[in-house]
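Forwarding the complex inputs:
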Amino acid sequence: LLLADGVTTEVPPDQELSESVHQGADRDATEDIWGPRTPHVGSWPIRVDEHVTETPTRWVQSACVLCSYGCGLDVGVRDGRIVGVRGRAVDRVNHGRLGPKGMYGWQANASADRLTRPLVKRDGKHVPVSWDEAMDLVVTRSREVIERYTPGAMAFYNSGQLFLEDYYTLAIVAEGGVGTAHVDGNTRLCTATAAMALIESFGSDGGPGSYADYDITDCIFLIGHNMASTQTVLWSRILDRLAGPKPPKLIVVDPRFTEPAKKATIHLRPKLGTNLALMNGLVQQVIEQGGVDKAWVDAHAQGYDELAKIVRKYSPNVVEEITGVPAAQLRAAGRLLATTPTLVSSCLQGVYQSMNATATAVAVNNLHLLRGLIGKPGSTVFQMNGQPTAQNTRECGANGEMIAFRNWNNEEHMEQIARIWNVDKDKIPHWSPPTHIMEIFRYAEQGSIRFLWVIGTNPAVSLPELHRIRKILAKDDLFLVVSDAFMTETAALADVVLPVALWGEKTGTFTNADRTVHISQKAIEPPGEAKPDMDILLDYSRRMGFTDKDGAPLIKWSTPEECFEAFKEITRGRPCDYTGLTYEKLSEGSGIQWPCNERHPNGKERLYEDGRFTTSFEDCELFGHDLETGAAIEPEEYRAKDAKGKARLKGAHHTPPLEQPNAAYPLWLTTGRVPHHFHTRTKTGRAPELQKAAPEVFVQLSETDASARGISEGDLVEAASARGSVRGPARIGDIEPGHVFVPFHYGYWDDGADGYHRAANELTRTSWDPVSKQPHLKFAAVQLKKVGS
Amino acid sequence: MTAVKIARDPKHLKVARYLGLVHSGEEQLADALTLLADRHDRDPDVESMLTKFARWSRTHMEGLDALVERLGEQKSEHPQRLRASLYYGVRMGGVGLIQDLHDLVVEIASVRVGYQIIEQAAKELRDKELETTATEYGEDLERMTKWAKTKLKQATPQALVVPSDHDSELPASVPKRLSVAAMPDPVWGPTAAASLLVLVGLVAVAAGGQPWLLPSLGPTAYLVAGMPALPESRTYNIVVGHLIGILAGFAAVYLVGAYDDPVVLQAKMLTGGRVAASVLAIVLLMLTSVPLRASHPPAAATILLITLGSLKTAQDAASLVVGVITIAIGSELFRRVRLRQLPAVPKPTEHSRRAIGT
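Prediction (whole assembly, two chains):
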C-alpha cells in the first residue's frame, strides 16, 4: 500500500495509513533531530517522516545515502524534479523514519552550481569541453603513463558514496584492465578498521548482526560512536527503547558529553588514544567476574590463553593510570558486561580513527566471543560503517580488498576472479596488499604515481595534514582526474573534471552496515551532460581497449542491471552471496539482507548463528595480522594453526598515542561530526536547512580551558598544531578539560576568508593504524588562543 | 665495550659469552632502529614502528641486566662489526628504505639466533628464568622481522619497478627533521673528516701554533668519519691504539738501536736499522692491541713516524698525545651523534613497562 513499485505510483492518501503507524510528518528535523518518540520493546513501530516542497506526482523507490544506517525512502518527483522524500514504512531498516540529512539533503541535486560539462585545465583555468575531448585526454595520458612508467604509476581513489555497479565496474577496470594495485576508497577513512576487525575475528568482512537486535537487547555498548550525530535514525530507535518498557542499559565510551553519553547508565571517559587499554581492562573484568562462557569459547573460538595472558596486565588500577577512568567505574562497567544476558555493541570513528584502532575494535569482538553473545537475537557486535555504500566499496574490491571478500594471498581465490573475468591471473596484482590511500599519496609525493583518478570524494578536505595533500595534488608530474557533481576543493586542482550523475539520477544498488541491500531507482535525469560513474568507466574501458584473454571486451555489461547480474556470479559461494537477489526482487520489498541465495531466498538476518565462522584457510578473506605491528600472517604460518571455522580471539598491548600534548601544544585535539552534515558538506552544505543549522566550523573547549585563556562563548579562537591552524567561534562546555573538538566537515569551497584556516584536517597528523591503515584523525596536540571577540 | 662480568660458576662461563653477545646485539639494534626511524620519518608507519621496536630492544637490555647480574657476561664486538657493514651509503627514497629494511632483517636475525642458542643452553642448565627470557625476547625479534618482511613485500614492487623523476623523489626523501644521523654518507663523511681536522688545527693554532696536527691523525679522522660504527673507531681504540703505537715505536727503535740512524725523509735515505725497527714495531702493535681490543689501524702510521725518525723526542710524543686526545674527544661526539646514540632516547618509563607490556 505504501510501497512505491520502483518506478511510478500514485501518491497514497495519508488516511490510508493504518492506526499503528505514527505520523512523524514534516517536522523541523534540524531542530527536532530524532523526531517524536514511539516507545517500544521487541518491535519498532512505524513512523513515517516526510518532507516535500511541492506535492509529488510520483514516488520512486530508493534509500538514503547520507549515512551508513541506510534508511529506505521514496523520492518524490514532479515535472522531472525531485520535490521531496518520504521514509518507506515497510523498510526493515528505518520503519518509515528519516533523519535531518535524509529529509533535506536531496536538495543538493538541484543546486545551481552542479557540474554539467566536462572541464579541462588550460593555462591554470578550467574550460568546458566535449566528453570526447575530455575522455581522449584522459585515455591518451593513461596510455602514456602505463607505457612509459608501468601500470604501477596509475591510481584510483574512490568513495563510499557510489553504487555497487559503479564500484564493481571500477574494480574490473583498475585491476583487470589497467592492472594496478593502487585502488582505494575513502572508506579507508571510515570503515577500513571495521572491515579489518571483522576479518581478524571472524575471518571475513560482513556485519554479523541485525539492526533488529537493538529492539530486544538488554544492554547497548557504544564505543567511540556518537550515534546521535552520525546515525540519527538508529539513535531514535534507541531513544524509543529507552522510553519504552524494559529499557536497555547503555554504556558509552566517549571523551565528550555527547547525547548518548548524557543518556548513559555508565559513561566512561578515557583520555584520547587510550581505548585499547580501557577495552583490555573491560575484557579482563569480564574474565575476572566470571562472564566467560567457557563451553562456547572452547567449541567456537581459538586463542583464549594468549588473550587472557595479555589482558591480565590490565588491572583496574593500571587502566586508571593509563586512561584516567576510575577503577570503580571500570569494575561497574565490567560487571554489567559480564552479566548482561544479551548485548549489542557498536564502534565507530572514536575507535577507528584513533590509536590502536584495529586492536580496540577486535577487543570489542573478543568481548562478545568470550560471552558467546554473537549470532543470537539481541546479541551482536556492529563494526559500524561511516558511509551509506561503504559496504559495497569493500565487497566489490574497490577499497583495497579483493572482490567478494576474497583473499589476495590465496592463489585459489585469485584464480576464481581471473576465471570469471577471463583474464590472466597475473594481470591482477596480488603479490602485495592493495595500496591504501596514504601510501598512494606517498607514492605520488615521491613521483612514482603520475595518474590519479579521484571519484566522488574530496581528499583535499578529508585527508590528514592538508597542506601536504594540496601540495601533492597540485604536483606537475601528477595528472589528476576528478569525477564529481560539484567543483570541490579537490576538483579545483584537477587537470580534468568529469561531471557525474548523483543519487536519484541513476539506478543501482547499495548495502548498509547490517547487510541490507536496497535498490535506488533513477528518479530524474542528470543535469546537462552529467553521466553515471559506471557509464564513464565503461566508456574509459572501451576507449582504452581493455580486453579479456580471448580478445573480447573486458567488460561485458552496459546497464546497471547487467552489471549487478555479473557481480552476483562473482559472489557465488562467498559470505556476501548476492545470487538470490534481482532488481525485481529488490523492488518488491524494501531492503533484503545478504547472504541471499537458494538456501536463504529472503536473506539471512544474522550471521554465525551456528558458531561457525569464515576462518578456514580456504575461506578466509585474509590470514590476519599481528595486531600490534601489522605484520601479515603468511599462508604457511596460517595453515599451521588454521582456525577451521572457529573465531579468532586476538589481543594486543596498548601503545600510547604517537603524538601527545607538550609545552608548545598543550591540549588534545579530536575531530568529528555534527548531525547536520555529511563528509565535506559537498551535498549537505547545499541543502539550505542543513547549512543554516550548522553554517560554520567551531572550536569546542571546556570551561576550565576557556577561563584560563579568557575565552567566552562565541569568541574567535585559533587552534593550531605543528601542521596548521583552524579559526572558529568558541563553543564552551560538554567536553573534558584539556580537550578540544573541531568538526571536520568544513572546507574552502564556500569559505569567504583567505588562507587555509577552516578544515580540521589542517591540524591532523600523517599516520595510520598499522593493521587497517586508517589514518589517525582523532588525536593531535594543539595550542589554543583567542584571536577576536 | 670490553666490559666483562666474570661468571662465578664455571658452567655459566660460555653462556655468559652469549649473554654478552645478545646484550651488545640489542644495544646495536636499538641504536640502528632509532637511526632508521629518523632517516625514514617521511614514512610514518616505518618511523612509528621502528621507534616502538627500539623501545622493545631497550626493554630487553634492561631485562638482560638482571640475568647478567646473576650469570655474568662477556660483551662481544661481533654485533658492532656486523652493524658497521649495514645501513651504509645513500639510503634515501623508496629504494633506500628497501635497502635499510633488508639490512635490518639481517641484523635482527643475528640477535634472534643468539637468543635461540641461549634458549638451548638454558634448557640444558634447567634455568627457567633464562629460558623464558630468551624465548620471549626471541619472539619479539621474530615479530620485528615479520613486520619488516610485510613492509618489504608491500613497498618493493613500487620502489624497484616504477620510475620516478629525481626532482620529485629527492625533496620527498629528505627527512622532515634534519639530523646528523639521517645525512647520507657522501655528505657526512667529508664533512666529519674535515671538521675533525679543523678541530685539532684550531686548538693547536689557538694554543700558539703547537705542532699537534700530525700525520697519524689523518687516518684516524678518515676512519671515524667514514666508518663510525666499527669498533676501530671507538675512543678507547683511538687513544689506546695510538699510545701502544708510540710505545711500540720507541721500544723498537731502542731495541734495534736505530735511534741515531738518519731521519729518512730528511736524509732521503733508508737504513736497515730503521726497516728492522718498523717491522718489529708493527708486530708489537698488533700483538698487544688486538688482545686489548684496542685495534686502531691509524696507530700503524704513528709507529712509522717514530721508527722512520720523524718523531724523536718525548716532547714530540707529547704533541702527538695531545693531538690524539683532541681528535678523540671530537670523534666521540661525532660518532655518537652519527650512530644515533645522541640525542639520547628516553628510557622506557616504569609506567610503560609495567602497564604496556613492552
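Residues 571 and 694 of chain A are 41 Å apart (CA to CA).
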